[in-house]
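Why should sequence recovery work at all? Because a backbone constrains its sequence more than one might expect. Tight turns favour small or flexible residues, buried strands favour hydrophobic ones, and helices have their own preferences. The token representation captures these environments compactly. In the example below, the structure is given first.
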């Protein structure tokens, strides 16, 4: 298989698997608290990745220790907070609301970058962000009218903000070590940070989980965690994060389309309008993706 084919495979497969993260997280929402779903997910991912990454982590342990602070920031935002907020939000908000709100994350990255660099975005970027924000406002109004608690919508926005912050942190992360070692270390640190939250919340009733619940959890850890990252990392090394970032828009699209046919996700007129506005906004902003290519930088969800 040619490098271009391998790259395209990773660029498509990973976001599709991450799109399933929303649907499967929604299925587990009533069974497993968000913090525990996230912790168990990453523990499963660690077990799967350990044979491939542990040796590299040990070989570069001194370098990783020297850069532990920026790694910890990425771990806090991407591993600890993002999915915890997402899974918690899915207990209160429908999956289509969470998926559409996630499409706001690239524009949050634009806003964060503009503040950090003290420059005004281009008119096209401002127009795209305006369309996206208006779409979010329509979606919020529609969700509140349907009885969705405001907290559910707020948690979705906070999750998107954490993802945007994570992207910014990864963009600034420069560790002279293999990407697999840096990523594995992030998971370890993120899981350590998650542990006190899980203990504070209290142990879940794992005995009440059926086989289907464990399969869902396995999907989050193996497919949406370890395998999706493995494909994505290969694609990043070949095409760079700047080109790959555009494909992240497959995530909410996958969640909505697949959920409509398999999980009973219902889209009304306002939801469809919001999706259309997000698509238009992404199309307008696509030449100005914030990410910069670097083989030691990668994304995970």
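From this structural description, the recovered sequence reads:
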């Amino acid at each position: 298989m040619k490098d271009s084919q391998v790259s395209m495979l990773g660029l498509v497969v990973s976001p599709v698997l991450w799109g399933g993260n929303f649907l499967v997280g929604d299925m587990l929402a009533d069974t497993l608290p968000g913090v525990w779903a996230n912790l168990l997910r990453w523990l499963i991912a660690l077990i799967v990745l350990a044979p491939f990454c542990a040796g590299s982590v040990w070989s570069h342990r001194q370098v990783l220790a020297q850069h532990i602070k920026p790694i910890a920031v990425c771990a806090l935002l991407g591993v600890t907070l993002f999915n915890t907020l997402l899974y918690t939000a899915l207990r209160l908000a429908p999956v289509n609301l969470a998926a559409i709100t996630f499409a706001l994350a690239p524009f949050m990255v634009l806003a964060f970058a503009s503040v950090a660099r003290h420059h005004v975005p281009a008119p096209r970027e401002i127009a795209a962000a305006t369309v996206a924000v208006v779409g979010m406002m329509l979606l919020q109004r529609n969700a509140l009218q349907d009885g969705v608690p405001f907290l559910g919508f707020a948690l979705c926005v906070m999750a998107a903000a954490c993802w945007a912050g994570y992207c910014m942190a990864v963009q600034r992360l420069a560790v002279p070590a293999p990407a697999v070692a840096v990523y594995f270390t992030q998971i370890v640190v993120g899981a350590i940070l998650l542990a006190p939250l899980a203990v504070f919340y209290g142990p879940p009733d794992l005995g009440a989980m059926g086989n289907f619940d464990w399969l869902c959890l396995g999907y989050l850890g193996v497919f949406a965690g370890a395998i999706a990252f493995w494909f994505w990392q290969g694609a990043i090394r070949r095409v760079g994060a700047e080109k790959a970032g555009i494909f992240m828009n497959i995530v909410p699209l996958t969640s909505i389309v697949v959920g409509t046919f398999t999980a009973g996700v219902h889209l009304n007129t306002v939801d469809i309008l919001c999706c259309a506005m997000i698509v238009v906004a992404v199309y307008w902003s696509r030449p100005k993706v914030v990410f910069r290519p670097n083989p030691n930088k990668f994304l995970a969800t």
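A few observations help interpret the result. Residues 3-288 form one domain.
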